[in-house]
């Protein structure tokens, strides 16, 4: 049987981890995969997470199964953090293995119940198209962002959604757009909410970077306005970045509807689909998030840690923008964009040269993970980027 299979290429983003690790240069710089790093280049376990793990170690009395939908307390606390208290809306959550697991279940649900069509603005996180394609959705793409001018193409987004059919799904990044860092203005969120409501579209909102953009509440304001406007919505949440628990694979999918019955029906389908895939989600990361969010002291410490990660990112953005300013007129955009990523107008050959000649690693799209910069590297990085960008 195996001889009937064609060998598959490695995921280019994940393959970068191996390429970077294999490079013996001590001054190499990793701007590749999206993990937060401190100024020493480390991704430490957050204090609040360590404290929660210690508590769990001391108090957890069983490793038996939790429930098909996962940990209900975790789900309630996470929804409160993301969705807030939506009057007149009902959310039903299912814990998932990471944000990717949430997107996969959402995509399965759309394939099962919706028009099977999803509108995706490009560029987007490459795995979006992979996940939606794997569940057989018909993915219709439109331009979200113009790389050479660093502009969000809002007219193109509105054109695509105005032409969408009732019940079509549309993928929306909640904040800290991956890969561009460029989001909607408050006015654009309003227009988006209006078209989604009028066309009766289903927003599938990917929330993977809450707290890394403008603030913990600010980063979900647009998401909340869409949920209020849409008759039904799906919200895929990742805890990987906001809690720094990447490898614990912790996330959730929430089905939001106008009635409890509709939300419960959606949840029962999500649970059934999970059961035939991985049965039940892993517990540890969700137990950690539950422990952090349900303790006033740990929650406060976690917020402080998240706020300081955001401050570091914003500081690095400003420094890089300043260092590029005398060679690239769009450099101020880098400071305005939010979250971990910006998408530079680089050719694939430029990216490969940066890798080979300078030990600077990024995917061939030209996306950079701002958190991978150390303060001391910025002048060197800017000096080699300027001739390529200018
Ligand atoms: C990224 O975009 O780098 C992260 O979301 C990691 C991943 O799984 O692709």
TrEMBL record:
InterPro entries: Aminotransferase_I/II_large, Asp_trans, PyrdxlP-dep_Trfase, PyrdxlP-dep_Trfase_major, PyrdxlP-dep_Trfase_small. Belongs to the class-I pyridoxal-phosphate-dependent aminotransferase family. One of its GO terms (cellular component) is cytosol. Gene3D superfamilies: Aspartate Aminotransferase, domain 1, Type I PLP-dependent aspartate aminotransferase-like (Major domain). Residues 26-384 form the Aminotransferase class I/classII large domain. Its cofactor is pyridoxal 5'-phosphate. Homodimer. Residues 299-326 form a coiled coil. Keywords: Aminotransferase, Coiled coil, Pyridoxal phosphate, Transferase. This is Aspartate/tyrosine/aromatic aminotransferase. GO terms for molecular function: identical protein binding; L-aspartate:2-oxoglutarate aminotransferase activity; L-tyrosine-2-oxoglutarate transaminase activity; pyridoxal phosphate binding. It comes from Rhizobium glycinendophyticum. One of its GO terms (biological process) is L-phenylalanine biosynthetic process from chorismate via phenylpyruvate.
């Amino acid at each position: 049987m195996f001889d009937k299979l064609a060998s598959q290429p490695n995921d280019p983003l994940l393959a970068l981890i191996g390429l970077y690790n294999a490079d013996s240069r001590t001054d190499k710089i990793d701007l590749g995969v999206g993990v937060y790093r401190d100024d020493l280049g480390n991704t430490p376990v957050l204090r609040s997470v360590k404290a929660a793990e210690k508590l769990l170690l001391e108090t957890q009395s069983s490793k038996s199964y939790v429930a098909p939908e996962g940990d209900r307390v975790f789900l309630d606390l996470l929804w409160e953090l993301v969705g807030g208290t939506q009057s007149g809306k009902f959310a039903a959550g299912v814990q998932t293995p990471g944000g990717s697991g949430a997107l996969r279940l959402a995509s399965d649900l759309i394939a099962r119940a919706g028009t099977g069509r999803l509108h995706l603005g490009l560029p987007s996180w490459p795995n979006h198209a992979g996940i939606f394609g794997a569940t057989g959705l018909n993915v219709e793409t439109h331009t979200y962002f113009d790389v050479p001018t660093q502009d969000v193409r809002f007219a193109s987004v509105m054109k695509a959604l105005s032409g969408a059919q009732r019940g079509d799904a549309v993928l929306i990044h909640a904040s800290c757009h991956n890969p561009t860092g460029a989001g909607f203005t408050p006015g654009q969120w309003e227009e988006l909410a209006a078209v989604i409501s009028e066309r009766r579209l289903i927003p599938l909102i990917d929330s993977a970077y809450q707290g890394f953009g403008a603030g913990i509440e600010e980063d979900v304001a647009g998401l909340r306005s869409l949920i209020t406007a849409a008759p039904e919505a799906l919200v895929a949440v990742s805890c990987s970045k906001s809690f720094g628990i990447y490898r614990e694979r912790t996330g959730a999918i929430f089905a939001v509807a106008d009635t409890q019955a509709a939300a419960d029906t959606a949840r029962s389908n999500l649970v059934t689909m999970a059961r035939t895939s991985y049965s039940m989600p892993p517990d540890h990361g969700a137990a950690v998030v539950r422990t952090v969010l349900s303790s006033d002291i740990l929650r406060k410490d976690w917020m402080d840690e998240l706020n300081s990660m955001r401050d570091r990112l914003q500081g690095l953005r400003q420094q890089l923008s300043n260092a590029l300013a005398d060679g690239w007129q769009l450099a101020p955009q880098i400071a305005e964009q939010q979250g971990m990523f910006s998408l530079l107008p680089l050719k694939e050959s430029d990216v490969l040269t940066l890798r080979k000649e300078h030990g600077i690693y990024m995917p061939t799209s030209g996306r950079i993970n701002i958190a991978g910069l150390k303060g001391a590297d910025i002048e060197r990085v800017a000096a080699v980027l300027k001739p390529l960008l200018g």
